[in-house]
Amino acid sequence: MTAIPSDDLAAAFARLGGEDDRQVWSELWDDLCHQGCVGSGSFAALPRLAEIADGRAPGEPDEAVELAGLIASAADDEHSARYAEELAVLLPVARRLLDEAGEDSVAFVDLLQCVLAFEGERVWSTGLLEGLYQHEYEIECPKCTSELFIAFGDRGTFASAGDYVTSDPAKAALLPADPAALAPFPTRLHRTAAQAGHEDIARGVTYLFGRATCPDCGDVFPVEDQVEASRI
């Protein structure tokens, strides 16, 4: 993505605070993170987004936090150091909004990813937790490379070798992790979701950090490894 000149950014942000805010935010999302892609110019928006988030500039704090969270999830060490002050401002706002997310599981997961991004986590903050509210992940078997769907929603819990929505593919068992035996990071995700009343998200964590059986070759593997591999 081409870096956006600072004067263009300032002009865009200056339009916030009026009746056209929804349109302005849509344009900012498209310019700064077009189709979810973060470029070098995107980071220049973090100072103003931090100001909006904590009320020093006009605009919606939730929009500022979510846009900044996506940008921060792509930060390297240099960006993290350069914008450390802004990230420190954004983090408590994201935590407050997460506490206020209520029953909206999409907002809850998106804000949880923002919190992780502002804390410096660079894997699961990059959109990989979205499958928790979609109730499925599309991955590849590490042994036979079959394309698999890992589903844990209303249609049941299983691994399928094919699109289980439009066809009737072969299915195999999912083996959820014991919440008491989870590693520290998934334990945090599980506890945060459960304490917020998002039992479906907490349940999804046990499948994301559990194991799956490939219906094509019978291999049993950790789901999280293949979800991480899908990011590369």
Structure description:
The chain has helices at 6-14, 21-32, 46-53, 61-73, 77-82, 84-99, 105-119, 131-134, 184-195, 199-208, 223-230; strands at residues 136-140, 147-153, 156-160, 171-172, 174-175, 211-213, 220-222. By secondary structure, it is an alpha+beta fold. It has two domains: 6-126; 135-230, no CATH class. The strands form two sheets. It has a four-stranded antiparallel beta sheet with strand order 1-2-3-4. Strands 5-6-7 form a three-stranded antiparallel beta sheet. Helix 3 runs antiparallel to helix 4 (61-73), helix 4 (61-73) crosses helix 6 and helix 4 (61-73) packs across helix 7.
Task: Please specify the SSE layout and strand pairing.
Layout: H1 6-14, H2 21-32, H3 46-53, H4 61-73, H5 77-82, H6 84-99, H7 105-119, H8 131-134, E1 136-140, E2 147-153, E3 156-160, E4 171-172, E5 174-175, H9 184-195, H10 199-208, E6 211-213, E7 220-222, H11 223-230
Antiparallel strand pairs: 1-2, 2-3, 3-4, 5-6, 6-7
